[in-house]
Amino acid sequence: MTEAMQREEKTRLSSSPSKAADNKTQLSPQEQSVRRDQAYVRKLLERGTSDAKIETSLQLTSRFTSFNSSGDFHAYVLGLIGKAKKTLEHAKPSEQPSVTTLTAFVPWE
What we know:
- It is built from six helices and no strands.
- By secondary structure, it is an all-alpha fold.
- The protein has a domain at about 35-90.
């Protein structure tokens, strides 16, 4: 094999990922839908939206029923909300500064 052919082969191999790597990075449409729903629920909870309003919003935007026509949508939403609340609870303690008492002395005039 000539040097030019070796370079060409090396370039071809490095520019096209293997099928196994491709399959790991690409999500199925159903997985994409679930992740989109999870992110949406998290955002709504961060804004203080009630669980009932989240369920109503998801009924309009989720593709759950197209993937699970006989599935229980209410249970699906409750599961998403529960997971998102747990995630947010675990994230909050590290984000919030610790509460300390600060005493300031102000001179009287």
